[in-house]
């Protein structure tokens, strides 16, 4: 598909610049073809950014306290595969591209090798003239800071020397592990119309369980008058609350911040703050800065737990407006073009499923399942209501003598309500069914855990023939 010629990426650290090899793009492919998405639609002309675009997005990786373990044992949350062909970070970067955001900084730290590799390969020749679309700023040490990033505010503060190089007026702060589609231009227009110092994105409906990122209290003009981190901790200004109508709205942890306000907040008012949401935003409210909210009514999911990850994949199968749409030609989802062969299906019965590229499905039954790239399913196998991440590579036709179980799912195996991580070797006649309905179980030494009733097979695990889980 045709893509804008204004896209590119490099990894930027104080003493390290990553320049992707030209071998990633075949010589027969035009230079502007470097991103892909499922339907291969032509990119709309609106992707050409306006000349007066003065916004840079800052996309955060994630910390070490993940509830997605063991899926995050060797990768960050943002690098998790989803819906067969994609990674979570693709949804966030695609929102930026589709919203004409032409500068994206990715601040990465924990288990970032897989994420950095994906970003560099997926967006390697996306350019804006000679400017990079995405710059990966990995955590680093300097004379001023010798440790890791201590939080989102600390990460931005320590990277201001890089961020100030680009002539922008606003920063758009984005988590890299959320699944949603948003036109950021609408968020930016609300920010400009309100002459705000900070604009926060909130869910338009109030939900009692949305406490991960706190809630904002708004007045009738959508101005933020207080922030509540959780039901037990209330950050309020009692004087401002008097005689003002307001309501609570769940935070999406998405912010637009004026560049000058950002610099003052991080270097003058809160020079020791580590967390942007819990420290800097409440501080801006207490200082009397103009903090407004923009209400978002579309699909949004915070993929921070095994249950949420499983649910998002299951919803990608359904044709419903309540799920994330992978087939929107006006707002496509971009990812790394892998140039894989089509999936080969031999006498298989497949219903209500998503199948990635380059799979081999032989006389098996697959129902309600996301099947990732390069997955091999043997004869007589049955897979139901599961997420199969696939494989990073094809296994050779002749196996080594010490590898008696090949990568994939063996003949006669039964799998139900499970997440199978990458490069897993499942033998013949294995039963992964959790028939006793165990809710929690840690058995990493044998290659699996159970959480919320979902069986998770660890990356690269070997499940012997005839095993029962």
**What's the β-strand tally?**
36
Radius of gyration, in angstroms, nearest whole number = 23 Å
The CATH topology of the largest domain, please? Spore Coat Polysaccharide Biosynthesis Protein SpsA, Chain A
What is the name of the CATH architecture of the largest domain? Answer: Alpha-Beta Complex
Helix content: 10-25%
CATH class of the largest domain: Alpha Beta
Termini separation: 44 Å
User: Average pLDDT, to the nearest integer?
Assistant: 81
3D architecture notes:
The two termini are 44 Å apart. The chain is elongated. Strands 1, 2, 3, 6, 9, 10, 12, 13, 14, 15, 16 and 17 form a twelve-stranded mixed sheet that branches. With 469 residues, the protein is an alpha/beta fold. 43% of the residues are buried. The model is unreliable at 1-52, 231-245 and 397-402 (pLDDT under 50). It folds into two domains: 55-233 and 245-317, Spore Coat Polysaccharide Biosynthesis Protein SpsA, Chain A; 344-395 and 405-463, Hexapeptide repeat proteins (UDP N-Acetylglucosamine Acyltransferase, domain 1), CATH 2.160.10.10.
Task: Spell out the blueprint of helices and strands.
Blueprint: E1 9-13, E2 16-18, E3 55-60, E4 81-82, E5 86-87, H1 88-98, E6 104-108, H2 113-122, E7 127-128, E8 131-132, E9 134-138, H3 152-158, H4 160-163, E10 170-175, E11 178-180, H5 184-193, E12 198-203, E13 215-218, E14 224-230, E15 233-235, H6 238-241, E16 247-258, H7 259-269, H8 276-286, E17 291-296, E18 300-302, H9 306-315, E19 344-346, E20 349-351, E21 354-355, E22 360-362, E23 365-367, E24 370-371, E25 376-377, E26 382-384, E27 387-388, E28 408-409, E29 414-416, E30 418-420, E31 425-426, E32 431-432, E33 440-443, E34 448-451, E35 454-457, E36 462-463
Parallel strand pairs: 1-9, 3-6, 3-10, 6-9, 12-17, 19-22, 20-23, 21-24, 22-25, 23-26, 24-27, 26-29, 27-30, 28-31, 29-32, 30-35, 31-36
Antiparallel strand pairs: 1-2, 4-5, 7-8, 10-16, 11-18, 12-16, 13-14, 13-16, 14-15, 33-34, 34-35
Family: Belongs to the bacterial/plant glucose-1-phosphate adenylyltransferase family.
Keywords: ATP-binding, Nucleotide-binding
Domain Nucleotidyl transferase: 57-316
